[in-house]
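Section handout 9: paired folding examples.
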Amino acid sequence: MRYLPKSPADREEMLAEIGVASIDDLFSSIPAEYQLKRDLAVPRQHGESEILDRFRAFSENNAAGYSSFLGAGVYRHYRPVIIDSLVQRGEFLTSYTPYQPEIAQGTLQAMFEFQTMICELTGMEIANASMYDGSTGAAEAVMMAVRVTGRDGAVVARTVHPEYREVLTTYAQHQEIPVTEVGYTANGRVDLAALDAAITSDTACVLIQSPNFFGTIEDVTAIAEIAHKKGALVIVSIAEAVSLGIVKPPVEADIVSLEAQSLGVAVGYGGPYCGVIACKEKFLRQMPGRLIGETKDVNGKRGFVLTLSTREQHIRREKATSNICTNQALVALMTTIFLTVYGKQGMKELAEQNLAKAHYAQTTLGAGAKVLFDGAPRFHEFVLDLPKSAEATNTALLGEKIIGGLPLQKWYPELGPNASLWCATELTTRKQIDAAAAALTGKKG
């Protein structure tokens, strides 16, 4: 990106147009304690060998050799090496928005195949070419439901990922969408009686997550029956896409918001992620983001194009369904490759491995703690009520090179300080589970 310098006269003219006297006045709304009053502490220039040494030193601070039982929306799964080999090809790595289909057929076809696979996984009829992540996807799905129904309220289960709910709150307050939350029962599923009571004639949609934040699989059929009876749409958020290898797709839903990170995307420091919205075809015109379609060229050959892009980049703002003006094409390509490598049978076997590992972990770790929400089917996450606080337990486990579960008190204070969310995937070994169980009970081998 080019650097375009501004002269002092340019700056004065710009400030005068804005109506402030100085740069400091422009940033006066920022609290003083957050304003940097000194020069940046930028180190001197480094030679290539010095840079390599510097980063090797940084790498020694990473948690190498640790076992991890964290999940909560970010999941460790094996990534076939072919993924990076293909996505790092220049044709994919450097491509931009495929405005000219005649020179972007490879990118367009990859997105089309991605959409097709997402539909097969979720049981929906159409899917977009991806969104930012699962949280923005869920919020966009709620706004989509508001447009479809002409109603303005949303009922959201407290078992939806807390951070997804926080993102939805940010969207909803500026869209003037009232959000009502409903609780859960002793088995970790949404409270159906409370849900029924919360839905009114102004409710556009019900948002649930399955498997939910506690790892429990919701009764989508019963929830859909309650919502549809009152004219509300059902949105199912799925934070763990691998679950669809064995869990029945939420075909009763009207809209599915999926986070595809676990399908071939590495666990990074906060990203990247890949959100998707899939839905019934009758809602096509209200779908945010891009849709890639199949067509034929003048010679009758198969080709691909941007069929629908109700985005501000392409149409007038007042007709746009979303102000998200991009998609996660490269990350979606990782997902496409992952699903192609595994195939239907491979996805089923992968999900079965996760289910088995989690069952063993729940049984083994449960010997030294109480398992909460144990009365409903689950995938690969479970909640433990530990003998000591979750924070203190995690501190002790770190000494054994074990990263324990996620403390839940921040989002679910009613569960107390000892509640912790644990996860086991196919990458979690029996040895690691046994070591964590021994550390919890104090019976080290």
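Moving on to protein 2 of 2.
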Amino acid sequence: MLYLLFEYLHKHYDIPGLRLFQYITFRASVSIILSLIITTVYGRRLIDFLHKKQVGETVRNLGLEGQMQKQGTPTMGGIIILLGILIPTLLFANISNIYVILMIITTIWMGAVGFLDDYIKVFKKNKEGLAGRFKVVGQVGLGLIVGCTMYFHPNIVVRETVQDDVKSTSSVPMVLRQKGETFYYTQDVKSTKSNMPFYKNNEFDYAKVLKFLGGDYQKYGFFIFLIVTVFIITAVSNGANITDGIDGLATGTSAVIGITLGILAYVSGNTIMADYLNIMYIPNSAELMIFAGAFVGSCVGFLWYNSYPAQIFMGDTGSLAIGGIIASFAIMIRKELLIPILCGIFLVELVSVIMQVSYFKYTKKKFGEGRRIFLMSPLHHHYQKKGYHEAKIVTRFWIIGIMLAIMTIVTLKLR
């Protein structure tokens, strides 16, 4: 809102300093600062309020060291994370930008699903919370919204170099550009392409999955893209939810991922950097850096109270929203195929649960007694059972997360 106001004032009045709001890096920096202020200052007040209302975590005794000491710790702290994201975004981002609108919808949508789950657990005293099928419906619903908007909205395009054989037949306007002494034409087009490392030109077209059908297979690319979008949002959202099991793990890991996504959004929206990294240039996507700044600021600010020993838990209000945000953000900047690397912590945590449950059911059916691969799942509980202190587990997972983030950026440069 302030961005649009200052744009208007700059256009009609010569007020010094208003040009600063035209710079994405400035607005992203201010967004981080405001987000940190909101989460740290008002986080304390939220903790006191939740204590007063006796909104505490109900802990099941799983035999983990120090676990029962967390009984009664305030939960639903994800509310302050959501506010720390939404308020700076609404103030400093261009809220007419379709990417920003989609991210606001994602934050509110998944935050509402998580809040409903926490509400049922805390106030209805139902430890199971919202039924799993309803969570999946919410995740799939968001995937459909994001996928359909990405495919059909006229302002969501990518810039491609026009090949010589289509210059005379293309109806899309072309722009002549220069790189060194070379001249070439580009055009902004709708596309089902995404960046994929170790693949030709670092690009993968979902429509090519159906190439075996022959004919005009491109028109069916939407369905593949939609399926991938729904799957990624569901998987990452659940992965973040499962990772949120010990103090500061999901919050710190998400902050690292958010920084990486913010960098990728900025370079994807910059023609020079996108060309250097050999990734698609996505017009107007750099505006997402303001949202990424608010997201990182919220995670870091919340970590002030969520680090060991945690004074507050984010609950599903925060973890489901964080996962949905990360997945949707990656899809919008066409980097969703990098998620297995970037979100490797979430992936391993999720897979450890799937493996544990599947193997237990299989061995119980075959041998009459269920057996386990890990001492306990998710993976961080396995290490707790082995005697590692949770602060050490979290720190090492953070280090791995930073290494994965660096690897994500490096793979983009590989050709």
